[in-house]
Request: fold
Amino acid sequence: MIRFILADLRRFGGGALSVVILIALSVALSVAVTLQERAVRLGSARAAEKFDLLVGAPGSETQLALSAVFLQPAPLPLMSGKVLAKLAADPRVALAAPVGFGDSSFGFPIVGTTTALISALSPQLADGLPFSRLADAVVGADVPLKTGAEVKPMHGSVETGGETHTQIIYRVVGRMAPTRTAWDRAILVPIRAVWGLHGMAGAEAHAHEGETHGDEEPGHAHGQGDEHPAGSEPAGEHGLPAHPEAHGPQDDDEADEHGHVHGHVDADAPLDEHFDAQTPGVPAVLVKPKTIADAYRLRQEYRSETTLAVFPAEVLTRLYATLGDARSLLLAIAVGTQGIVIAAILLVATMHIGARKRQIGALRALGAPMRAVVILVWGELFVLFLAGIGLGGLIGLVTAQLISARLTAATAVHLPVEFAQEDWRLAIGFVVAAAVVSLVPALGALRLSPAAALRS
Amino acid sequence: MLSLEINGLEMRYPGLAAPVLAIDRLQVPAGTRLCITGASGSGKSTFVNAITGLERIRHGSVSWNGTDLTRLSAGGRDAFRARHIGLVMQDFHLFPGLSAFENVVLPVRLARRLTSTEAQRARFLLDVTGIARPQQRIETLSRGEMQRVAVARALLLKPGVIVADEPTASLDSQAGEQVSELLVRLSREERATLIVVTHDPALAARLDRHIRLVAGAIVEDKEGVQAP
Reply:
């Protein structure tokens, strides 16, 4: 039987192939949409796993989460450095790391932070050491810079017409192990270097003197916290202000033709990761609470007029709901396409049966039972459907993998393309639908009397 | 071997006032080699369809060894035909893409599993009908060979009757001669009744009873081998 079906299909090879391709493409659309949506959901959830709680200045929760977790460049308001100091001293906090963005190099974002965050992201460095001087940098696993390489920070990015900072050249001293998050594309530098580079006073005080904190240099009205004790800073272009308004007239920082003010940075200054009330403003602080209860309490406490606290996972969940809507829409389109394809196939099959009346009549005349004729016609179409569904699944899988690979290359977030339990239901649904649809021309073939079929 | 008995048979088509076939009474004893002739439109094909159960009979009866086809359902007629009637048609109705052997056993394979005895008999029949390479694709054979494969297929299940509808009409005279010889010889060897519808005088000459149809009625019924 199967040999006869295959021999018959070979005779109509071109037609059979086009039917298979038609089915495959429509199935591939559904498969790719389903897999890709899941990949983005799983991948971003895994990327956010390491980030329990984010504290930032009031503003968009989504933007805060996207900027800190996925290092998406966007203007973020600054919050007072006091918050960082307070969080760092809080006994319920296992880790409180500032995250300062704004610069980039070779298209990779430069993130100012602390060695504690490096240990949290990559407990074992793949290579080298964490930074110990202000001009040291640790790169993410996907940044193609070797230890010892120089990193010239650029304000903003090339695309946004950024300019290169000249006061400091970072030197790569270590490389993190892959984290499969956006941080694999980040260049991590000491937060104080970022502050210093952007002329944020508090940093200079520490960087220059490397002495006990809280000291203020006359003429520097450092610490945005001092200026705006209860509020956030106006947003700089990329999280950090390009125009720190805290500079006094006797400030010796040079102002370039763009009106940018740059601070001095002593590249060899030792690392200082102690934060206090005079600490400059930061766009976000990553917090690892000690317990889940602490996490909820901290979030509650830091949801105030001056600060915003979010669980990135929660923000992502809200985004997924949107993603889910988009998927539903795409799937509806895919199902509509399948309907059209099925209608086209039924048309082709019915015409094909018409053309094969004689063959079917002859089979019956020669003694093939009706059920054999039904199975034959049904089987031929069903084989085409199965081939199409199989091929479509494959095309969908490969497509999703290609899309994921491209997205991963761009964002460093690993997007896993994988099948799940519910996919079997979808596959079985396809197969059952194919089996039922294939019956239509088969039952049509039954209506032919063999004699009438032979005469035609 | 099957004997045929027809009583009060009348076949009509919608829209036609006169029946296309009307046979009041016909008996064909088992083992007869019967030839049916007639101009086109005389009802020959309808006769074949009626006696093989390909078409439903509304008036009269057609019995093979007492089995009345009119009492069988469409499926029952299919099953009876499959089991007892070997059909050979003008256009062969072989299936491209399959070998000669596969074509011979196809009707059986479509109904059930082929037994080894049947496979053996298929090879035997292909040998007898002079098909040298049973595994050769059917579409690469000559027309004469194709009809011989069709004869082998008709005989696979040792039918009680072979019904051949213009078996030589689409063959050249030499191939037609071979097929004619084969049909007559094998019907004798296989002990089957043979009913042939033909215009071919060479084939007709080999048969021992001749019926001529005109406008659906039997106008002549002669015994004995005719001169070509």
